[in-house]
């Protein structure tokens, strides 16, 4: 699949090529739900979205976020509430027990139908399958980026081994993947990839412009500087993942920012056995790194909304004809 482009029939949360079929979608965005009846609208709450493995860093209650400083950007002006991530001064990675707790962390399967279809299709055999998951994030105006921090991304793997595929984990790395994003100093954006360790995976991720780095004890910083976050305005993040065929290097990861494809990596191995599948969105955010120099320099916040997901199949694939679909 070629990198997608934004057109009249697309949305920043789903900036997809016109020949891609949406088999099933959900969203907490009213504007995306109005684009097509294939997107089922859900409120922004824990039960509806299938949250689980919730850490003690729960988000605060839904809050009314500040207005974006860009009044003309395409976003949901009708959405009054968002999840707030609060970062106290000195907060850092939760593995640092001596620092204040900041941000939040949990896993999101999506509504039951979404979670069931993902699991069934990924294990049925060959056939092109893409999953897109997306959200909007706004950092408060004047946000101090420090050295960087984590942002949500798609995760998956074999059963419960998909959980905790981060933080320098060494065990069962061939049975999990985690594709969170990061902000870095000055608001630089990147894909922070934990994938099954192999020379080919490392080679392809590290070839991603403008800059990619590998800390062998942790993830691969992929495409650092491919975009920049601007504090005080909503940024739409969409992530497309295609699982590889078992035994082949044909997996893909693509990141869109405000409707533009900024990172696209092909030829990946995300699973080595049929039971490995996309499980949802790892909704986690914090400053860090775990060392004190990564800490938030002051008390500050970011807000998240527009949580969405879709299961996609190419228009030429007749697999699973009974699942409803629409064309963007």
Characteristics:
Jelly Rolls; mainly beta; disordered C terminus; globular; 9-stranded mixed sheet; disordered N terminus; 17 strands
Radius of gyration, whole Å? 18 Å
CATH topology: Jelly Rolls
What's the helix count? Answer: 3
Counted up, domains total 1
Q: What does this entry show, briefly?
A:
Residues 83-306 form the Polysaccharide lyase domain. The protein contains three helices and 17 strands.
Descriptive account of the structure:
It is a single chain. This protein is mostly beta strands and 328 residues long. It has a single domain, classed as Jelly Rolls. It is built from three helices and 17 strands. Strands 1, 2, 4, 6, 12, 13, 14, 16 and 17 form a nine-stranded mixed beta sheet that branches. The chain has an eight-stranded antiparallel beta sheet with strand order 3-5-15-7-8-9-11-10. It is globular. Residues 1-8 and 318-328 have low confidence and may be disordered.
Tell me the layout of helices and strands.
Elements (H helix, E strand, L loop, with lengths): L19 E8 L2 H4 L5 E3 L9 E2 L30 E5 L16 E5 L3 H13 L5 E10 L8 E10 L18 E9 L3 E7 L4 H8 L6 E2 L5 E9 L6 E8 L8 E7 L2 E9 L8 E11 L12 E15 L11 E2 L1
